[in-house]
Amino acid sequence: MTDLFSEITVRNCRIRNRIVFPAMVVCDLEAPEGKVTPAHLAHYRWVADRGPGLIVTGAMCVSPDGRLNENQLGIWSDQLAEDLTEIPEICHQRGARVLMQIHHAGFRTVPSVSDDPVSSSDYEENGVRARALTAGEIAELREKYVAAAVRAEKAGFDGIELHCAHLYLLDQFFSSAINKRTDEYGGSAANRARFALEILAGIRERTGPDFIISCRMGCNTPDLEDAGEIARLLEQGGADLLDISYSTIPLAQIVDGGGLPVPEGFEHSGFVYGAKGIRDKVNVPVCAVWQIGTREAAQLVSEGFVDFVAVLRGMLVDPDWVSRARAGEEGSRCYDCRPVCRWYSDRNSCPGWQKLDPAVRLQK
Ligand SMILES: Cc1cc2nc3c(=O)[nH]c(=O)nc-3n(C[C@H](O)[C@H](O)[C@H](O)COP(=O)(O)O)c2cc1C
């Protein structure tokens, strides 16, 4: 039986436990032109002090015109990367490993950063519009993702996480509902995954042998079978870790999670069901997410459902989540606010955060 607090080695990199603090764009902190600020560093200090084995940074954009909001951090220049070196220092000093999540929003790019949003295919839904990337533009963007990863390595990160989920650009290629291309980037799962696989190959070629590549992908592109096929391709393409979340669902449902329906008797969420289904098909470690409590986390790892559990809002509302898990205690739960988590606008309106002793809250 594997313990939640047992070490695991991913690509020569020892990770002290199976608990991941997953990617989180800190939307209520300003990031002028994508630049990290002391407030972001304080955020990562706070996160690393919580005790996860692995931290994934909030999505960092590979191109200024692909940002999901104006406060998103960027990794499109050497200068931006130099300013980020303190993040791995902070995490390493506290015993955690850290991956930089790299990202492009595709048609979910905010109008304030681009009046020419792009996607896998021409796209129009509920007033959101984008045009299909040309093959030449795909090659240019691939280079931007690879350059971002090279910068992350130089800045001291243990690896990167390629954001291929949540209906952002790479997911817009994976998704057969959105990707209607008739060239080698559309059609079969292998073609829809080609862009991500080319990025992976480029990163492998230009980074060292210990550099971790994680891929965050959906378990529903649009179903588990398709997702499993893409997961296997990513594994063959060199991914060291698969971080399973959600994918193709109408934009409006994204905040609701939209995990897979689970069979009767399955006691966990649709996300866990999806992650377990993918783990059954690959040999690399797999991480599950979504409202995972302390006892559930221990069970998921010990019973071999997954290798890692990612806990975001749970740790925000219960900063002692890790020590509680170690003691076998249940912690307080996130309220799962609708229509959207309050941290997307202002942390101080999060009801779980409000209940915390101000001394343990991270001030803006
Ligand atoms: C404020 C906020 C920002 C987020 N930013 C990202 C992000 O940058 N990249 C990403 O892959 N997921 C992001 N997520 C999704 C989380 O990583 C996680 O999958 C989700 O919160 C579900 O996990 P939980 O139930 O443990 O919170 C974000 C979620 C929240 C609430």
Structure description:
The protein is α/β, with parallel strands linked by helices. It is about 30% helix and about 15% strand. The chain has helices at about 40-50, 80-85, 85-95, 135-155, 170-175, 190, 195-205, 225-235, 270-280, 295-300, 315, 320-325, 350-355; strands spanning about 10, 15, 20, 55, 60, 95-105, 120, 125, 130, 160-165, 210-220, 240-245, 285-290, 310. It has an 8-stranded parallel barrel, surrounded by 6 helices. Strand 3 (about 20), helix 1 and strand 4 form a beta-alpha-beta unit. The protein is globular. About 50% of the residues are buried. The model has no long low-confidence stretch (mean pLDDT about 95). The structure holds flavin mononucleotide (FMN). Flavin mononucleotide (FMN) binds near residues 27, 58, 245, 311 and 312.
Instruction: Give the helix level as a range of percent.
Output: 25-40%
Low-confidence stretches: none
Q: Give a list of the ligands.
A: flavin mononucleotide
Report the biggest beta sheet as strand number plus sense, adding barrel if it closes: 8 strands, parallel, barrel
